[in-house]
Design brief:
The complex is a heterodimer of chains A (152) and B (358).
Chain A lengths: L1 H17 L3 E7 L8 E7 L10 E2 L4 H9 L3 E3 L2 H4 L9 H5 L4 E9 L2 E10 L7 H14 L2 E2 L2 E2 L4
Antiparallel strand pairs in A: 1-2, 1-6, 2-3, 4-5, 5-6, 7-8
Chain B lengths: L1 H20 L3 E5 L5 E4 L1 H6 L2 H9 L9 E4 L24 E7 L3 E13 L4 E8 L1 H51 L7 H28 L2 H5 L2 H16 L2 E6 L8 H22 L3 E9 L2 E8 L15 H12 L3 E7 L3 E9 L9
Parallel strand pairs in B: 7-8
Antiparallel strand pairs in B: 1-2, 1-6, 3-4, 4-5, 5-6, 8-9, 9-11, 10-11
Helix pairs in contact in B: 4-5, 7-8, 8-9
Classes of the chains: A alpha+beta (152), B alpha+beta (358).
């Protein structure tokens, strides 16, 4: 599908621009898939295991950003999740990420997706990088599923 | 007459031996409270100062170590002291607390009574209760733990059913109502909004179903172990992005309800431990019957841990697994080595009466 290629192309671009180890895009699945949230697109990922994970609302990185509708910055994963808590964040564990930033994608007053940028070393994700991620998302992912994304 | 005298000698001999070798502490006191004699067991529990005072026959020498006795109104009291009270009948069996050499304050079962009415000689016998108390406390803890597990399971079942059968059902009705709106209006804006609301409600319904499943899967009660395990593992794989290699060769569909619950909970705990601490991508779970024993093995090739080391978590999980297994006369063996992985092996004996529940 063209849309798929387009998304993949866009996140590759964002990854290059930010110099991230990984960019992942989680989208709310259509009604026939019960509207679950999944990491559908990824660039720079080690394993495909990531895409199997079904995120429950409020759980994990995407779930949290999805529910709160606010960007999330984690400069150091070690301070964010305790050693025995890491399993709650499959993307951090599977991809061995040490610092991440994530932003919600809005459409008509609702969060429809989450864009994540991450590094495999701590303290590489900074507020400036997160801002860049947000603005790149604005220009690169202006349309999702043919729907205009809203930015405020 | 000789026979009687023989018997008496024998009795004296026995009494002396008992006095020398008994583990009970025995004291003899005169009517005015002076020590006549005390046996080795009694000397052993007294510290040097108290022993000295007692041997000297000092006044109130026993008060050096006695911390009081248990009366009807107090656990430890000196009121109406057994030693000085005139009513000796009351003290044929009571509990007294003594400060002992090396062991601190210990409860003793005591008896204090007159053995020679003419002279007023009294005997004071003490039996250490601390071991019995420990046994009792352990027994109490065990019973309590088991009751708590049962109560928790029942309560979970109730809430889980309530969520699944009533809350989720009501939500479904709301979704159906919302869907019916499309036959009532052509207003695009309204329909769009309702579609979004429907999506939110469906997601909420899903959350509630998940909650209900986490509390206690209905599949466990309705379909049995294998089905419950399969859906549980599927959910875990989806939630945590790892794979669980589940093999089952059990032939019976159903086991006694209690057995099923214990197996499910222990497996849940063991697999969750592996997810949390082993840092692995695959976990093996085997369920089989062998020699009329239902067995479950949860195995990972992960980080492993040291038995008796400082736990990363609460350290209660392994303890809880054992407690649960004991509920159905089973046992849990956990073997682990750093860098090699961990294996949890549960065995539950199957009796004939524990045959098919359905």
């Amino acid at each position: 599908m063209d849309d798929t290629k387009e998304y993949q192309l866009q996140i590759e671009k964002i990854r290059e621009a930010l110099g991230c180890d990984i960019i992942a895009l989680a989208l709310v699945q259509p009604a026939e898939n019960l509207h679950v949230l999944k990491w559908q697109y990824a660039s720079g990922n080690i394993s495909e295991g990531l895409k199997k994970v079904v995120l429950q609302s409020g759980k994990g990185i995407a779930g949290g950003v999805f529910k709160l509708g606010k960007p999330l910055l984690v400069p150091d994963v070690k301070e964010f999740a305790a050693k025995d808590d890491l399993f709650n964040y499959p993307i951090l564990r599977l991809e061995n990420l040490k610092s991440i930033g994530a932003t919600p994608l809005w459409h008509s007053g609702r969060v429809v997706g989450v864009l994540l940028g991450g590094f495999r070393d701590p303290h590489l994700m900074t507020p400036e990088k997160l801002q860049m991620l947000i603005s790149m998302a604005k220009s690169g992912l202006s349309k999702l599923d043919g729907k205009e994304l809203m930015w405020n | 007459m000789e026979l009687i005298s023989d018997k008496k000698d024998q009795l004296i001999d026995l009494m002396l031996k008992m006095y020398e070798n008994s583990t009970e502490a025995i004291f003899f006191f005169t009517s005015d409270g002076q020590t006549i004699s005390m046996n080795p067991a009694a000397e052993k529990i007294m510290d040097v100062h108290a022993l000295d005072q007692l041997k000297k026959g000092a006044e109130n020498a026993l008060c050096n170590v006695c911390r009081g006795y248990t009366s009807e109104s107090d656990l430890i009291t000196c009121k109406d002291c057994y030693f000085t009270s005139s009513n000796h009948e009351d003290f044929s069996s009571f509990q007294v607390f003594l400060e002992t050499a090396g062991k601190g304050v210990i409860p003793y079962a005591a008896t204090f009574h007159v053995i020679d009415a003419e002279k007023g000689t009294r005997v004071f016998i003490l039996r250490d209760l601390s071991i019995q108390f420990e046994t009792q406390t352990k027994l109490q803890q065990n019973t309590m733990m088991k009751n708590i597990i049962k109560a928790q399971e029942n309560e979970r079942k109730r809430i889980s059913r309530e969520l699944h059968d009533s809350v989720a059902q009501e939500l479904l009705s709301a979704v159906v109502d919302l869907r019916a709106l499309k036959y009532m209006t052509d207003d695009k804006a309204v329909l769009k909004k309702t579609n979004e609301s429907t999506a939110t409600l469906i997601r909420l319904m899903d959350d509630i179903r998940n909650l209900s499943l986490e509390l206690r899967p209905a599949a466990l009660d309705d379909l049995g172990l294998e089905a419950a395990f399969r859906s549980h593992f599927k959910r875990l794989e989806e939630s945590y992005g790892l794979s669980i290699d589940f093999k089952s060769t059990i032939e019976r569909n159903r086991y006694e309800n209690e057995v099923e619950t214990v197996l499910y909970r222990i497996c849940q705990e063991a697999v969750f431990n592996a997810i949390k601490y082993a840092y692995v991508e695959t976990i093996q779970v085997n369920l089989f019957e062998e020699g009329n024993i239902l067995q479950l093995i949860v195995k990972d090739q992960g980080a492993g841990f040291i038995h008796g080391g400082i736990p990363i978590g609460t350290g209660l999980g392994l303890y809880g697994m054992n407690e649960r297994a004991e509920l159905v006369l089973g046992n849990v063996a956990v073997s682990s080595e750093i860098g090699e992985g961990t294996t949890v092996h549960l065995r539950v004996p199957l009796e004939e009466k524990r045959g098919m529940a359905k």
